[in-house]
Write a sequence for this structure.
């Protein structure tokens, strides 16, 4: 009979710890920041992005040209262009929202302060009624 050295009745089975689960997720998916935190990773250089985008289109053309999918090549290329346009629009909206939030934040704080200060001074100047006996 074959005895498995890894299976021992004396040692109970252990599930993975919470730390192991976090480390496994980081290993699989990499660093994930929250939506409100800035992304600490570097932005790729313009030249690197241009070469990568060019490679995407070259790969589509090389793969689909002179095949049964050649008729759909124009649609696929324009779909890819539209995908980049949507991503650009989404990033621009996010930047605009951030800019608006930065512009309105001091104004909102100033309006709140102007409402709070008169209320405090009027509360202090108000006479306190005498306690009934």
């Amino acid at each position: 009979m074959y005895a498995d050295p890894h299976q021992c009745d004396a040692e109970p089975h252990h599930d993975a710890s919470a730390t192991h689960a976090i480390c496994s997720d980081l290993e699989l998916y990499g660093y994930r920041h929250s939506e409100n935190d800035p992304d600490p990773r570097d932005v790729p250089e313009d030249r690197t992005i241009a070469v990568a985008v060019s490679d995407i289109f070259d790969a589509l053309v090389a793969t689909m040209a002179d095949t049964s999918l050649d008729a759909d090549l124009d649609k696929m290329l324009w779909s890819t262009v539209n995908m980049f346009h949507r991503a650009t629009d989404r990033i621009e909206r996010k930047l605009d929202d951030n800019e608006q939030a930065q512009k309105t934040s001091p104004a909102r704080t100033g309006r709140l302060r102007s409402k709070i200060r008169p209320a405090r001074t009027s509360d202090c100047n108000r006479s306190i009624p005498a306690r009934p006996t």
Observations:
- The CA atoms of residues 26 and 74 lie 39 Å apart.
- DSSP finds three helices and no strands in the chain.
- The chain has a mean pLDDT of 77.
